[in-house]
Amino acid sequence: AREQLGGAAADCTVMGDAVWDHVAARRAGMMSVGVLTGGYGEEELYHAGAFRVYRTLADLLQNLDELGILL
């Protein structure tokens, strides 16, 4: 998706609910944000590299400003 949009990895934010999402984002040089919908705990997602962790997608959407995303 990053290549198709022509953006830099540093400008991308990955949203994931599994440890592996955050490991992959970190390896790609992207920021990642966790959501507690995949069975992993908050501490696990932070340890894997998540910048922030939210309980639900609705919580994430309500706090986009914390990520520097303004709609």
Offer a few descriptive terms.
single chain, alpha/beta, three-stranded parallel beta sheet, 4 helices, 38% helix
Oligomeric state as shown? single chain
The succession of helices and strands, N to C, reads: HEHEHEH
Helix/sheet category: alpha/beta
Radius of gyration: 12 Å
Strand content: 15-25%
* Percent helix: 25-40%
Largest sheet: 3 strands, parallel
Could you please describe the fold and organization of this structure?
- It contains four helices and three strands.
- The chain starts with a helix and ends in a 9-residue tail after the last helix.
- The chain has helices spanning 2-5, 19-28, 42-48, 57-62; strands at 13-16, 31-35, 52-54.
- It is globular, with a radius of gyration of 12 Å.
- Helices cover 38% and strands 17% of the residues.
- It is an alpha/beta fold.
- A three-stranded parallel β-sheet has the order 1-2-3.
